[in-house]
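Office hours follow-up: a student asked to see two folded examples consecutively, so here they are.
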Amino acid sequence: MYSIAIVDDDDNDISALKSVLERYFKENGGECSIAVFHDGADLIKDYCPRYDLVFLDIDMERLNGMAAAQHIRKTDEFTAIIFVTRMAKYAIKGYSVSALDFIVKPLEYFSFALKLRRALAYVDSNHRKTVCLKEGNSVSYIDESDIMYIETLKHYLVYHTKQRNLKIFASLKSALDTLSPEKFCMCNRCYIVNLRYVTEIKDNIVVVGGDELIISRYRRKEFMEALARFWGKRG
């Protein structure tokens, strides 16, 4: 299911966008959940990367779409942003926030469907996976793409992420089973590495997020092959 946000201060425009979205998924299959915000300020309040696709109106009273997009990009580089506007001349500024596309109001279904199809293909190719970490009565949800590496520490795991480190009681195998196998690989029996954050290989050392981790002789061949496949696909 795709998670979609609509951010617009005009109820008629919100209804029109919801209608074409529902029509698209009815005709093409698949499902979506739609969250509605009536201003950019409402979207960015306690924002976390939970949406696959955000439709942003540019002209809103409290916080316009461009400013909201700039806020999103501070913590979220993956969510697809599409500006929906009557002011096409301003949408070109979207390149500064890596906007995927823009749509001019009023919406025309077939043109919209083409743009949405491309947007969903982008989402699929950059699929984001959420990992649930439980420790006692505490539950944390983190984006898989934010994990730089996972370290085993006796019977605990330390998740080294872009924002913070999380320590939970679990096994390395259980962690590996929840992660995308094409993106993560063990460099030795104590570490699982997110291949995206590998910046350097020097002898038996891999540099991940600025930290140096040992590549074991036993794991080296598998690790280097996984790294080559990962960067080959990205290229």
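And the second, which I mentioned at the end of office hours:
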Amino acid sequence: MITIQNDNFSLAQICQSGQCFRMTNHSDSRCSRYHLVALGRYLEMVQKGNSISFDCTQEEFDTLWKDYFDLDTDYAAIIAGIDTKDAYLSAAAAYGKGIRILHQDLWEMLISFIISQNNNIGRIQSSVRKLCSQYGEKRIAANGIIYFCFPTPEALAGVSLEDLNACGLGYRSRYICQTADSVCRGDIDLSKLRAMDYGAAKKELLKIYGVGAKVADCVCLFALHQTDAFPRDTHINKVMAEQYPDGFPFARYGKNSGILQQYIFYYDLNKK
């Protein structure tokens, strides 16, 4: 068990921030308790206050989870850099200060955010869970827990639309079929995306069948960790119209804009 202290880390807020769909809440009145399936691994975590414990070895934490949870980034410094005259953004960052931008698998994020279109978090999680249990590799964690990896492009290529529809994917099934086939044929080279900057990566992602601007931005932010990506959905567009009618100050925040977007999204979604 590895334990850290961090004032800008909240399992609950990360789980509810709309970027990760395979993190599950098992909390009780005593502490926040979650499990996560990511990068082919199973991880259990417990949080009390600013103390977070990870059920893994030091080696696994150092080589995998430290980077996954972006623990080398100083989120407190990012929040401190917010314009003090911007009351809305200051309030949003204070409310969601435990959110971190995760370093997630590119293929998983591409498919997950294709599924996210015109969908809510609960239904996305359900569809992803069904997709993994049906087509993902079955593994057993060190503590005996059975879990399923996210299905590979090869596992999804050639799956019928009818079978994918059984996972609750609806019209998104045809997008997933074609994307998996394109990756397997080499028409889409995911490795090249990792070497691109935000603008080039987004342009390339928009060539994929079923990927629009919002999905492309989500993939750039949550998989490629291009924190200047700024996904826009109905929540963000509403805030931009109400709070930033002259435009969000991207010039001021630059590479941190995507992190601030997450604070805004979480605040608008949950503050009431």
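Two things to take away from it. The CA atoms of residues 10 and 191 lie 31 Å apart. The two ends are 36 Å apart (CA to CA).
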